[in-house]
Amino acid sequence: MRMVWASLTTAGDQRTKAFSIDAVHEELLFVGGPVIITAVIVASSPSIGLWVTAAAVSLGTAAMTSSASSGALRGTGGSGAQGDRPLRQPGFARVLVVLLGVGGVLGVAEIAAPATAAQRDAVAASGWLLAAFAGGSALGGFLYGQLNLKSGIGKRLFALCVSMGLAAVFVSQLDTLGLFAAGLALIGLFLAPSLITGYLIADTIVPDTSRTEASTWINTSVNLGASLASAAAGLVIDRSGAWLALLLVGAIALALASAVPFTRLREIESPADHAPDRCEQG
Fold it and tell me: Most Cβ neighbours (<10 Å): which of 36, 38, 120, 181?
């Protein structure tokens, strides 16, 4: 889907706005989707809820794949040079390391929310806590797309990841459920912008023939960080509480943010921003 966005937009502010719209709608689905399906399940049954979900996914996939913009894209069939592969591009692996921290905070936040609600005998509030987290991310993605940022993309990734780590450390010290919900929204505020920046870097740092693979590596890194952090957070929360899990993952995200390849991104960013989009040239 992000390859379709890249084919429809030019590098720079326009593509940033497109990726932001994509991220905002994704987060809104995380907020509204569970509410809608819960209503369907209450009115009918869990199996009907699964059928409705499957139908929505099928219709959405059919709509995207049958569109003219999607049909115009063609893969390289593996014919690209080995030197074009994302992991062979200087600095790309370091970006993946940074995004491991982002995924870690994501994974812990999604575990800490229901755990905190359960510890306060308010299990029913779990959904609202997760909605606050996703809502903060949607707001962050929207604001990020509206701002005409002049700072380099490497500086942006560093600032966002550091802010997300600091927010996690801060939220670990909050006691009341209301403040914790606001804190999760604060953490989420930096989530979508971090992911958007990661995808923009993938577009900038790798050749056109490897953009799909690069985008997949971004997803893999975030999901790997979330998976590892979720597993570790379960152990930590059982023994010491959600506050320690958030504190630790925040510190880890701060440490991993130092891996941002500032020099490499400065070298390639200006030509990438001002040259004609290579998809359009093809």
Answer: 181
Q: What is the pLDDT of residues 61-78, one digit of tens each?
A: 999 889 888 888 776 665
Whole-angstrom CA distances from 43 to 36, 38, 48, 179 are: 11, 9, 9, 33
Query: Do residues 187 and 245 lie in contact, with contact meaning Cβ atoms separated by under 8 Å?
Result: no
Tell me the average pLDDT of the chain. 87
Place of tokens 């709608």: 25
Q: Distance (Å, rounded) from C-alpha 243 to C-alpha 139?
A: 25
Whole-structure pTM value: 0.82
Cα separation values, 234 from 7, 168, 170, 227, 230, Å:
41, 16, 20, 11, 6
Name the nearest CA neighbour of 27 among 114, 147, 141.
141
